[in-house]
Specification:
By secondary structure, the protein is α/β, with parallel strands linked by helices. 39% of the residues lie in helices and 9% in strands.
């Protein structure tokens, strides 16, 4: 077991793509012999140890280099419960060392031309470039600020190549006028509702179109999930196009799990050309959650933070990742997922802060069943002064059955249902559990409305789309310009006190 990376099992290092010169091979072998026992180094070719409290993030089965996924817990990794969540360990040590703000820097994806090769050669090259004497003098001084500047002069170019140039700063959108109806409503100060529609598992689109038309008058935009639980369905891109054809505004969900950096950039260019103006960037459920045989779960080309960084720069700077100019850049409103209960609120707040810096303009959260716990998370976001930089839509799912509640609580990462709600569902019995779940959802909406930083609700009906109009109506959340669907009676607006 490596000395400085806790709870880690030995994993094989990456192999180089091509044969390196003898000198570099010898240097790589030396680096592997030293950093392997110390840190469990996998020779990624772009070492981030100094930014991650000297714990190697390449332990993460999802390959996340910018923070934990929404399933992180103190106890174990949700992909592999025989090991701890390595990012929880990184956060914990960073806070103890007073290095937590270093976690805000947006770190690059791997350059696969460098995997399996050494990093020390790059460090030596940068020392020579800065000046060996200057580096030695700067590191030997008693002045902490000078040491920091010297250290960064050597290591920042190593970890931040010219094609990436990530930082820890907030980057405001480079446009003023809203690009989507969802963004317009949020900017206007409306309390907004969005809702998911599950994509079909075949080529049949009848139910998809019916559900979309059914909820369209009640919401600002409709989300289409991207293969949840790593189970193949009709693509979110196809569903979004169908939604536009039927008069609904879509939110295109893109899971990092299934995207290379090339495919990601191509997809958003195409989506923008189709008129899709809202994009939600997700890590995606790990392949192990899907039906077998299980696909590769140890190589993910980009994580959700890197996705945001790439897409923001494409839109605002008009550049592909490789530096090529985009003559007509895409237009979209960028969103990300947030998980209030995945781990400690102060850890989650850094994760969300980093996403905002990278480009997230709105959050749709994981399911909320504990408003008090959510408020602790919101308070941590407020401490980081980011509530005025991002719109937050709280995830609400009406519980249709007790079995559904139990599955959510025990099987879905980042979701926790209080015992009192479980007991209410159980006491309702088979005949009353659906209505009890509906009433719980109403109470949750009332509880989260009006809390600082909450700008709306994100409905996740999980196959129960038919209940969405009633829930929105009885919660008093009908949009100001509501027009009832053709042939339907206008629902009574019931205000929430």
């Amino acid at each position: 077991m490596p000395i400085f990376t806790p709870g880690r099992r030995w994993q094989p290092p990456y192999l180089p793509f091509k044969k390196e010169p003898l000198g570099r091979r010898m240097l790589a072998a030396t680096e592997r012999l030293i950093k392997g026992p110390l840190f469990g180094c996998r020779m990624c070719g772009n070492c981030l140890l100094q930014e991650t409290a000297f714990i190697c993030p390449m332990e993460c089965p999802k390959g996340a280099r910018n923070g934990p996924c929404g399933g992180s817990t103190e106890e174990f990794c949700y992909v592999d419960n025989t090991r701890p969540c390595i990012w929880y360990k990184i956060y914990d040590r960073s806070f103890k060392m007073g290095r937590e703000e270093m976690l805000l820097e947006v770190l690059p994806p791997l350059d696969w031309d460098k995997t399996g090769t050494e990093t020390w050669g790059d460090v030596i090259h940068q020392v020579k470039k800065v000046g060996t004497g200057k580096v030695v003098k700067g590191m030997m001084t008693r002045d902490a600020a000078t040491r920091t500047v010297t250290w960064d002069a050597v290591f920042r170019p190593v970890r931040q190549p010219e094609w990436w140039e990530g930082d820890a700063e907030y980057h405001a959108p480079a446009y003023d006028e809203p690009v989507s109806e969802l963004e317009r409503r949020l900017k206007a100060g409306e309390f907004v509702v969005t809702s998911e529609v599950a994509p079909p598992m075949s080529t049949a689109t009848g139910a998809l179109i019916r559900n979309t038309k059914h909820i369209k008058p009640y919401v600002a935009a409709v989300n289409f999930t991207d293969c949840p639980s790593a189970t193949p369905r009709m693509s979110s891109l196809a569903c979004s196009k169908i939604a536009i054809e039927n008069g609904a505004e879509p939110v295109l969900q893109i899971a990092a799990r299934d995207r290379t950096r090339t495919g990601l950039q191509a997809e958003v260019i195409g989506a923008s050309a189709m008129g899709i103006r809202n994009i939600l960037c997700l890590s995606g459920d790990n392949a192990r959650m899907g039906p077998g045989p299980v696909g590769r779960s140890d190589i993910i080309d980009v994580d959700s933070v890197q996705m945001l960084w790439i897409l923001r720069r494409m839109r605002d700077e008009g550049k592909y990742l490789d530096g090529r100019s985009i003559k007509f850049p895409p237009k979209y409103f960028l969103g990300a997922a947030a998980a209030p209960y995945a781990s400690e609120p102060k850890f989650q707040a850094i994760r969300e802060h980093k996403k905002v810096n990278a480009g997230a303009q709105f959050f749709q959260t994981n399911l909320v069943y504990d408003p008090d716990g959510m408020e602790i998370w919101l308070n941590e976001l407020a401490k980081r002064n980011i509530l005025d930089k991002v719109y937050i839509l709280i995830g609400i799912t009406p519980l249709k059955t007790l079995k559904m509640a139990q599955y959510m609580h025990y099987e879905v990462p980042g979701v926790s249902i209080p015992e009192k709600l479980m007991k209410r569902m159980e006491a309702a019995g088979k005949d009353g559990e659906a209505e009890e779940g509906f009433q719980i959802a109403l109470e949750l909406i009332e509880a989260v409305r009006g809390k600082q930083g909450v700008n709306g609700i994100h409905m996740m009906a999980v196959g129960w789309e038919s209940i969405v109009p009633r829930l929105i109506t009885e919660a008093g959340l009908l949009p100001p310009d509501f027009v009832p669907p053709e042939g339907a009676e206008a629902p009574v607006k019931v205000k929430v006190s």
